[in-house]
Amino acid sequence: MSEKPTLLLVHGAWHGAWAWDPVAGILEDRGWAVERIDLPTVHADDPVGLHLSDDADAVAAAIAAIDGPVVVVAHSYGGVPTTQAATGDTVQHIVYIAAFALDEGESLLGAVGGVAPSWWVVDGPLATAGTDDEPPVSIFFADVDADAAAAASARLKPQSVLAFQEPLTQVAWRTKPTTYIVTEQDAIFPVPAQEALAARAGSTVRRLDTSHSPFLSQPEAVADIIEEAARS
C-alpha cells in the first residue's frame, strides 16, 4: 500500500457519530486518521422528508473531502447509504458491521420483510427504536456496560422513515473489496441473514461474539478488524 487510508465511520439508524467514540479513539491512538459523520435523516434540523439519497450524498461528500484513499466502515443501516455512495476510485475497502449490504433495487424495509419490525415505533414521517417490551438496551446494547448502554439509549434520535423505503440504484460492493463482521449474539439481525449478505457481497467474514453494537462492547476487537482491512 503506497498511502495509508483515512477511515470513514458511518453510523447506523437512530445513532450518531458519537457511537464510534471508543473505536475512533483506539484507531487514532494507533496512528490512523479517522473521520465520522452524522447522517442527515437522523441529525438534520428537520429530518422529515429526507431520503436514503440524502444520507448517501452525505457519505459521498465525506469521501470526496478526504485527500487520498479511504476505507469506509458502516454499521447496520449505515451499510445502505455506504453501498450507494462508496463507488468512487478513492475507496479501497468497505467494512460492514452487522450491516445491510443490499443490492440494486433493494431497500432496508424490503430486506426486513416489507413490514416494520415490532420494535420500530413509526409516528407519521419519523420512526424511533425500542418499545417497553423491546427497549434499546436489550435490542442494541445487551452486552454493553450498563451505564454506557443507558447513555447510548438516551442519545438515540428519531429518523425519517423514507430512509428505510428508498431502493438502492448503485452497489459499491460489486467493485470494492469488503469485510463483513458478523455479530453472533445479535438480537435484531439474525446471523444467517448477515451471513447471506456477506456471501453475496463476496466479503471476507470476521465474527464477534457480541450484540448488535460491538463498537461499544468490544471496541478493541472492532478496531483490530478495521486495521486488518485497511492494511490489506
From TrEMBL:
It comes from the Bacteria. GO terms for molecular function: hydrolase activity. Keywords: Hydrolase. Residues 7-224 form the AB hydrolase-1 domain. The keyword Hydrolase applies. The keyword Hydrolase applies. Gene3D superfamilies: alpha/beta hydrolase (3.40.50.1820). InterPro entries: AB_hydrolase_1, AB_hydrolase_fold, Sec-Metab_Biosynth_Hydrolase. PANTHER family: AB HYDROLASE-1 DOMAIN-CONTAINING PROTEIN-RELATED, ESTERASE_LIPASE_THIOESTERASE DOMAIN-CONTAINING PROTEIN. This is Alpha/beta hydrolase. It comes from Microbacterium hatanonis.
